[in-house]
What we know:
The chain is α+β, with helices and mostly antiparallel strands. The protein is built from two helices and four strands, in the order E-E-H-H-E-E. It has helices at about 30-45, 50-70, and strands at about 1-5, 15-30, 75-85, 95-105. A four-stranded mixed beta sheet has the order 1-3-4-2.
Amino acid sequence: MIITTTPSIEGKQIVEYKGVVFGEVISGVNFIKDFAAGLSNFFGGRSTMYEEELIQARENAMREMEQRAYQMGANAVVGVDVDYEVLGADNGMLMVTASGTAVRYAE
Length: 107
């Protein structure tokens, strides 16, 4: 399935718009990752644990969006946008949302 941030697919003609499609993931960040990230923040450097969590959440949200588009009969998603938010009383939850327009293009 083609997934793109652009509103069209170069070289393809969109023949049907199926609707807006979403993929959402809410992920908790545990104490050990918080502690390790705190050390990175204190001593400097990148927090690879948080980066890995972010990458995994984004990939899961994109995969979920793609599956929902497929269920709608789409063979592409255009205009994709990915948003990140922190949730929870102590900001201990990460929410990643992927959205776009499910379409069918002529093959």
